[in-house]
């Protein structure tokens, strides 16, 4: 009976998740179907559906461990008695989390068709390289390069995040300029009288 | 002959691009096929292929105006005689560009299946809201909220950008912590003796 049960369960859950992550990375979540996952595993669609009732369930299962880590770090930070301890715990925790989950982040962050264009198009690569040098200096060290990359990611996030959708464009522009300068370690420009 | 030519050309180029952007936003670039675009336009696949020889060509045409603006701003910044003027021109230009192209950024930035999970899952929304308050303070103003969103986007970018893939993890962790603190306007923590 144990054997029958194991057969009914189909491919091991971990194997389905590993294959899903690989296909999501290659085709994007939206570009991957349960059929593609089943084909890659050499099983029927029904066998995949037996474990995950939809592609959203697979995506959820893939990010569940990271969400659980996020929950633990938020609770640990909230439990700190002082504000300084709360920020320090939250920051070191979230930095650790994104470093640890960088492969998963890449899958959930970008559409692979877009990443290919961004990283393989010679004109765009040339322009983003020149922009990096403008922001980080002509011969940037690793810290300055990280700051320039964070400026890019931060600006993209701030202009697409639904939490900031209601913010006045002039106000947003002012904060983005100020925060990007801060990130690059630049002083505020002299204001013209 | 003019009429025949117009018919051969099929749907207007701008109309194809508008429909493609809409479908990319809904299904992701990787999740959208030329067939889906043709169906939405009510034409044959051949009519779409007549204007764009592949989906990559459509994506390229959609981002081409933004790439041209990027080229102009990089050249204007490089033409500044001083380093301070170069940074100022590059920064104000790139902030303007991302604000202006926020809809396009959203399409190229995230897989819609992932965005739905991130913004609609109540557990994840609760956790990211609590993390925001930990980083930006319990009752953050707009500036502090923008800073917290930029921390999130910056960290995701820095841990997935191929330019930083070779960087030692300990070094990356140190820079990310320092730069995130800078972005949040926090002083460096006292080091333990």
TrEMBL record, chains A, B:
Endpoints of the signal sequence: none
Keywords: DNA-binding, Transcription, Transcription regulation
A GO molecular-function annotation: transcription cis-regulatory region binding
DNA-binding region, residue range(s): 33-52
Record-annotated HTH tetR-type domain positions: 10-70
Keyword Transcription regulation: yes
Name used for this protein in its record: Regulatory protein TetR
